[in-house]
Amino acid sequence: MDVLDFISAQQHKLILDTLGTVKYISQGIFTTLFYSILAAFFGIILGSLLAILRYTNNTLLVLVVKVYTSVIRGTPFLLQLFFIYFALPGLLKINIPIFVAGIAALSINSAAYVAEIVRGGIDSVDKGQVEAAKSLSIPYFSMMLDIILPQALKSILPSLINEVINLIKESAVIGVIGVADLMRRAQIIAAEKYDFITPLCIAGIIYYLLIYIIARFGIMVEKKLK
């Protein structure tokens, strides 16, 4: 084998290794999106409910919502994840699967931010809408779900899309408890090959493309609503 054949073989091996790395890491796309989208779904539902409860006349409920949003927004997501996966099983004497812990932590964290987003959207709706609904004796929850929230959606949609994007980025943290997402797979390759640059760059590119696609989709939906 001459020098040229050796170089060619080395290049061929490098290409195959890189393609194998890309394939292995990209297999985590579904896991990342699955956790993020499911957490966004639960987070939006719970966050909207919290925002609605914030405007009730029940002082205790309002206080609970304020404390919840303050604590969740004021503590690191990693701490919340560790508390749910490591501390909570010991307190409740139950076993919490990785999947449940990951979804629960992401959803609970997202709900606190969604609650503030929805609250801002509700505040942007003309107060006359609420007064008109009350004068017609429309129940509180029906008023919020059928009249106020649909009007608030247009103003909060960009913020909700940003929250989904933040969830995709924050989902990289759940790899620390064993979830084989994009970041976790990149770390595995890096540890096996003692090469952190290649797998991290590949993971970064995939994250960027996912977020770019979702951001463009959000812009399209926003234009449709307008």
Automatic annotation (TrEMBL):
Residue span, ABC transmembrane type-1 domain: 29-215
Coiled coil region boundaries: none
One Pfam family this sequence matches: BPD_transp_1
Keywords: Amino-acid transport, Cell membrane, Membrane, Transmembrane, Transmembrane helix, Transport
GO molecular function, one term: transmembrane transporter activity
Listed GO CC annotations: ATP-binding cassette (ABC) transporter complex
Location, primary (coarse class): membrane
CDD domains per the UniProt record, alphabetical: TM_PBP2
Protein localization: Cell inner membrane; Cell membrane
Gene Ontology annotations of biological process type: amino acid transport
Membrane topology: Multi-pass membrane protein
InterPro entries for this protein: AA_ABC_transptr_permease_3TM, ArtM/GltK/GlnP/TcyL/YhdX-like, MetI-like, MetI-like_sf
TM region(s), chain numbering: 33-53, 60-88, 94-115, 196-219
PROSITE patterns: ABC_TM1
Family designation: Belongs to the binding-protein-dependent transport system permease family. HisMQ subfamily.
Function: Part of the binding-protein-dependent transport system for glutamine; probably responsible for the translocation of the substrate across the membrane.
The protein's name: Putative glutamine transport system permease protein GlnP
Annotated source species: Candidatus Aquarickettsia rohweri
Biological classification of the source: Bacteria, Pseudomonadati, Pseudomonadota, Alphaproteobacteria, Rickettsiales
